[in-house]
Specification:
This protein is mostly beta strands and 336 residues long. The protein has 2 helices and 24 strands.
């Protein structure tokens, strides 16, 4: 059973995932690799420093599907220096960086490897894959773990098989102090921290179709934030520069959009709307000027990683970062 087949039973996740299909041949992005979306562009490394020390180079961590297995990969922000981080036979996926970019947290998906659900696990490791550490095991299907801005906590969602819905949980980074934040019959999924750590936005089906809500970091005062997507709003993420903007996916228009939380500027598209395939999982670049996302819009039909700028909506304004096909590159998260 694939990770995707398991997620077919989850109403909200069905809209988001579509990715674990077939086998793959993995190659790093080449300067002369053709892109179905934009002309070939010579990549230039995006660095916040030149020391080469952990955390000094801007990077993207993502989930890659290859040879029937799912693993965590990291590459430089320009698509170069692609490397596999996890090598376990289980499905390792949905990774995110710690605030200092030295470690990652990821899901080890065990429920899809057995007819008898074993429960998924949260793990952490250094970005080279060394010193993997088990954080938490639950009798649930886990997804979307994210470190808090101060690195002390991890928020994530869990699909609870006995209740047939997803809820939001938070746990200390060492695995202690597990706390459930949402209690609703609807699906609550895809949590993301505000830059100051005082709030958590997430996707919920409390409004019948997926919408974005926000609550205090302790789970109190849940309230709607973005609800006007025709077929659903997915995958929210705050802009790192003060958190005054939010990137998300408008599922019906199949495009990443950027919403001004101060409501002083219009909502902007990232690239053209209505492209073929699916568009998922936006993540902001470190300086908050561009958005990296996963999409199957290319002529090959597999998921690759792309980058675009809010407000620039021509097909040529979107540049492809990976040449992963025929496998899938999904769930990107940019370094802090």
């Amino acid at each position: 059973m694939s990770r995707f087949s398991h997620q077919m039973t989850r109403p909200l996740i069905v809209l988001r995932a579509i990715v674990m299909i077939g086998s793959a041949t993995l190659t790093a992005c080449q300067d002369d690799a053709p892109s179905p979306v934009a002309p070939p562009s010579k990549a230039s490394a995006a660095k916040s420093g030149t020391s080469g020390k952990p955390g000094s180079l801007e990077q993207v961590v993502f989930t890659g599907y290859k040879d029937g297995n799912t693993d965590v990969y990291i590459m430089n922000a320009d698509g170069t220096n692609l490397r596999r981080v996890t090598t376990d036979s289980s499905a390792d996926e949905q990774a995110a960086f710690s605030p200092d970019n030295k470690r990652i947290v990821f899901v080890r998906a065990l429920m899809v490897r057995s007819l008898v659900p074993e429960g998924d696990e949260l793990w952490s490791a250094y970005t080279d894959g060394s010193k993997p550490t088990l954080i938490l095991k639950m009798n649930a299907s886990l997804s979307h773990p994210r470190y808090s801005p101060d690195g002390t906590k991890i928020v994530f969602s869990a699909f609870l098989a006995d209740k047939l819905n997803s809820e939001i949980f938070v746990v200390n980074a060492d695995g202690t102090g597990l706390k459930q934040l949402t209690y609703d019959a609807a699906d609550d999924d895809s949590p993301t921290w505000s830059p100051d750590g005082t709030a958590i936005a997430w996707v919920t089906t409390r409004t019948m179709k997926p919408a974005i809500f926000v609550m205090n970091a302790d789970g109190l005062d849940p309230r709607p934030l973005i609800t006007d997507c025709e077929s659903g709003c997915l995958d929210p993420v705050f802009n790192p520069d003060g958190g005054h903007r939010m990137a998300y996916v408008d599922w019906g228009r199949n495009v990443v959009r950027v919403f001004d939380l101060d409501r002083e500027n219009p909502t902007l598209d990232v690239g053209p709307a209505g492209t073929p395939g699916s568009t998922l999982s936006p993540t902001w670049t470190k300086n908050g000027s561009q958005v990296v996302f996963s999409s199957s819009r290319g002529i090959e039909g597999n998921f690759e990683l792309y980058i675009g700028t809010p407000g620039k909506t021509a097909a040529t304004d979107v540049r492809r970062l990976t040449v992963f096909g025929p496998g899938d590159a999904t769930r990107p998260v940019y370094s802090n």
